[in-house]
Amino acid sequence: MIKKLLQKVFAKKTKATLAINQADSGLNTAKRIPAKVHKIDKSLISSAALKTCEGLQSKGFEAFIVGGAVRDLLMNYKPKDFDVATNATPEEVYKIFRRSRIIGKRFRLVHVLWGSETIEVSTFRGHHQADGDGKTTDSGRIIRDNIFGSLEEDAVRRDFTANALYYNAATEEVLDFHDGVADLKAGLLRMIGDPTTRYQEDPVRMLRAVRLSAKLGLKIEKNTQLPIHKLADLLHDVPPSRLFDEMLKLFLSGHAVESINALRAQHLHHGLLPLLDVVLEQPLGEKFVMLALKNTDNRILAGKSSNPSFLFATLLWHEVLKAWETYKSSHPPIPALYMAMNEIIDLQAKKLAIHNRFTATMKEIWAMQPRFEQRAGKRPYALLTHPRYRAGYDFLLLRCESGEMPLELGDWWTEFADASSERRTAMLLPDTGPKKHRRKRKKPAIHVESSTHE
Ligand code: ATP
Ligand code: MG
After folding, report:
1. What is the pLDDT of residue 21?
2. How many angstroms separate the alpha carbon of residue 37 from the centre of ligand 1?
3. Quick check: CB of 245 below 6 Å from ligand 1?
4. Of residues 83, 176, 183, 297, which has the active-site annotation?
5. Calpha distance 275→234 (Å, rounded)
6. Same domain, 188 and 312
7. Which of 20, 94, 125, 409 could cross-link to 157 by cystine, CB 3.0-4.6 Å?
8. Burial class (CB in 10 A: 0-12, 13-18, 19+), 189
9. Is residue 262 one of the residues assigned to a domain?
10. Choice among 72, 145, 154, 159 that is catalytic
């Protein structure tokens, strides 16, 4: 369906025939595509990105919107973020924008802040030189790469042809160095240069190929796809935190289910991506996890936000359940649950490189689950006021839908949350559980003592 849409969009755009001009000075390998041909809808371009380009150009620098944003604009999608490329050095960019900061080690970039929006500005990269400021590992992976270069060199360093498109906000032209527009038109995701070398330089590009093709409905071009299977093991070399970030993008792309199926088809799962192993190697949990991912996809495609903590809580829930069962044989249920949660967080969150900022919320969502089974007395009212009630409830619904809990339990909470106070009272179950005994407070020793002093 996406392919058809693409063809439609491009058919419209190319009616004016691709009046592509060879560029003059310095850009002799680029095709220049004028606004009347590419027909980018300017209302989809963030004003922060335009202001960033203007700021740089007004100081005499070159500046272009680049990468995924131009690709998405050509496909008539609203880009989720905007990147700018320039010939100004990070220090020069930093000096121009009052609210900016230099970040990154592997690639030094500048974040320019406009209200709540951040525009990432990178200086044109030059050709990688292993004996210069660039550094590679034995397998050819680039670990430091801060050589600046020309616009043309920058285009060669990008991954796919569709990602090497540059939009000049002043002239409204798109510069196309590697026939990215033609590839997009043909529905193809094609690696720039020799795919094997490019994957060796950065194995994460294999994951990007799979993710972007699923997200954009593009087919991975044959030569771009061929080496992936052979080179999959190179992912072992990639630092866990980088893998984590890429997998997070994949899970939150709105196309997680398709991406996971594609990773499977490309043999990019077993033992390579710990986060994915968790998803695919738990027969009991798979249904639950796939439901959760489908649910996340639907939310994201409907323009709603999705909390990564919720997603990780779903990915590890069946591990927690397993550990909980074990602890329950020697401890009361609630302390046993806490022990299980801590064990899984210690074991898995470290292995998967899940940031600490996510684990606290994951624990809250898990800890709330037994409380949903208490439907008598004052407890359900108290649960409704929990700050994470909504996440806990959504989590419960997934458990019901996957068959782990009775559907009736989820339905009860759906009704209870919105019911009138009379209806709520009528809905409460008889309190048959063990009465909570108030522990008799021992008289504090100080009283005893003070009485003796009287
Ligand atoms: P998304 O829509 O997910 O943001 P994107 O292509 O914009 O996709 P980013 O991670 O935002 O992805 O990267 C911005 C641009 O930087 C890319 O379009 C590409 O030109 C370049 N890029 C990113 N990662 C790599 C990489 N590993 N190798 C080469 N170029 C890359
Ligand atoms: Mg992007």
Report:
1. 37
2. 25
3. no
4. 83
5. 17
6. no
7. 125
8. buried
9. no
10. 159
Tell me if 187 is assigned to some domain.
yes
> Which helix (H) or strand (E) element contains residue 431?
none
- Report the largest interatomic distance among the alpha carbons of the chain, rounded to a whole angstrom: 103
Task: Answer with the one of 163, 195, 227 that is the final residue of a domain.
Answer: 195
Q: Ligand 2 centre and the CA of 413: distance in Å? A: 39
Residue 122: its H or E element:
strand 117-123
Tell me, yes or no, if 83 is annotated catalytic.
yes
The residue whose CA is least distant from atom 12 of ligand 1 is 68
Query: CATH code at 327?
Result: 1.10.3090.10
Can you give the residue range of the structural domain that contains 331?
A: 308-427
User: Which among 195, 222, 248 is the end of a domain?
Assistant: 195
Same-domain status, 34 and 173: yes
Rounded to two decimals, the pTM is 0.79
Residue 221 lies in a domain: no
Query: What's the gap between Cα 327 and its chain centre?
Result: 34
Catalytic: 179? no
Asked if residue 187 and residue 336 are part of one domain, the reply reads no
- Dump pLDDT digits (tens) for 262-271: 888 888 877 6
Residue 40 gets the label, from left (phi > 0), alpha (psi -120 to 50) or beta, of: beta
What pLDDT digit, counting tens, does each position of 203-254 carry? 999 999 999 999 999 999 999 999 999 999 998 888 888 888 888 898 899 9
| Annotation marks residue 233 as catalytic | no
Whether residue 143 lies inside any domain: the answer is yes
DSSP assignment letter at 149: -
DSSP string, 335-374: HHHHHHHHHHIIIIIHHTT--HHHHHHHHHHHHHGGGGG-
Report whether residue 81 contacts ligand 1, using a CB cutoff of 6 Å: yes
Upper half-sphere CA count for residue 330 (Cβ side, 13 Å): 5
CATH no. for residue 88? Answer: 3.30.460.10
What pLDDT sits at residue 264?
82
* Domain count of the fold of the chain: 2
Mutate to test the pocket of ligand 1, among 44, 73, 83, 218 (most ligand atoms within 8 A of CB): 83
Q: Using 50 as the pLDDT threshold, list the residues of the chain that sit under it.
A: 12-26, 130-133, 443, 445-454
Return the pLDDT at 454.
27
Between the two ends of the chain, the Cα-to-Cα distance in Å is 88
